[in-house]
Amino acid sequence: MRIRATVAALTGALALSALVVPSAAQAADAHHSVLADVLRAAHTTSGSKTGARSVGAAETAEAPLDLTFSKVSVNAGKPIVVGTTNTVTVPTTFTVTHAADVDIFADDFELGVDVYRGSFDAPTNDLFGDVAPTCKAVSSTVATCKGQIDVWPQDDFIGNADATTWKAVGWAFDLNGQDPSDPDFDPNQIRSAVQDGLGTTKLQRYSKLTVNAAPEPVKKGKTITVTGKLTRANWDDFAYHGYTVQPVKLQFRKKTSTAYTTVKTIKSSSTGALKTTVTASVDGYWRYSFAGTSTTPAVTTTGDYVDVQ
Predict the structure, then answer these.
(1) From 107's CA, which of 198, 204, 252, 262 has a CA 20 to 30 Å away?
(2) Count of alpha carbons within 13 Å of 85, Cβ hemisphere only?
(3) β-strands 88-98, 67-74 pairing
(4) Where in the chain is CATH 2.60.40.730?
(5) pLDDT one digit per residue (tens) for the chain, 309 residues
(6) Is the sign of the CA dihedral 265, 271, 273, 275 positive or negative?
(7) Cα separation, 248 vs 85, whole angstroms
(8) Cα distance between residue 218 and residue 304, in whole Å
(9) Element (H or E) spanning 44, and its range?
């Protein structure tokens, strides 16, 4: 399972009773959210659910990390569409504003923007990037950053309930020259910040749609039967199943035209199957088009050509 190395080490070092870091064997058997630990630690030390806050094993003499996030964008505002097997990588962009004495380019500094589902106190799942963001200084206290979110459908233990709205959160750690794997690592020397309420994104279940118009060729005035199937990713068993009782448009384009027109709207069956009939009149292309839902993206087939004689 993918776990962000530095943050995993940090959460292991943070001696909060609220944090429980599993062994490698436990991590192999059940999903462990590193971000959940970070967020719980932030809430425990700050007593607040929104805005920038420090994260540490206890209230310390160290000042909170003077750093904030703004202008956060996940996948350019578009939903993240995920299937059953392939890793999906989408971009994140954000601006970091920090005090002059905060060196975000130091080797012992880590930051990023992740997304999580559920409450800030106890997120049910989180998604993050496999590669650290790259930042460019635009002044001594401001930098623009580009990162990514990587979704591994099975490794990230997403389920159908995750096809909903996710929240963006920014986090940063200044280790002050310490190595989290060092037995003498002192969490009280960490300066850190977590900022919630940075926007939202949607996670959607990848959809597929097929079409077949037959017979071909067909005599003018005869019946054409148009069949197909609407399916979508099921993250509970990582297979594709029929998307049932959904409105799907049957559309037609004449051979001499470039535009499709809607002929009728039908609904998918209890298995996602589509079937309807039309009368053959002229040569052209038949296709199905699904407008999508909040959990499932729109999808349209390519046209299936029928020669009318």
Answers:
(1) 198
(2) 2
(3) antiparallel
(4) 207-306
(5) 344 544 544 554 443 323 333 333 333 232 233 444 544 444 343 333 333 333 333 333 345 899 999 999 999 999 999 999 999 999 999 999 999 999 999 999 999 999 999 998 889 999 999 999 999 999 999 999 999 999 999 998 899 999 999 999 999 999 888 887 888 888 888 889 999 999 999 999 999 999 999 999 999 999 999 999 999 999 999 999 999 999 999 999 999 999 999 999 999 999 999 999 999 999 999 999 999 999 999 999 999 999 999
(6) negative
(7) 26
(8) 13
(9) helix 34-46
Task: Give yes or no for a contact between 287 and 209, defined as CB atoms under 8 angstroms apart.
Answer: no
Three-state SS at 78: coil
| Count of CB atoms situated within 10 Å of the CB of 136 | 10
In CATH, 5-204 is 2.60.120? no
Q: Retrieve residue 230's tokens.
A: 């609407």
Report pTM: 0.82
* Phi, psi dihedral angles at 62 (to 5 degrees): -65, 140
CATH 2.60.40.730 fits 207-306, yes or no: yes
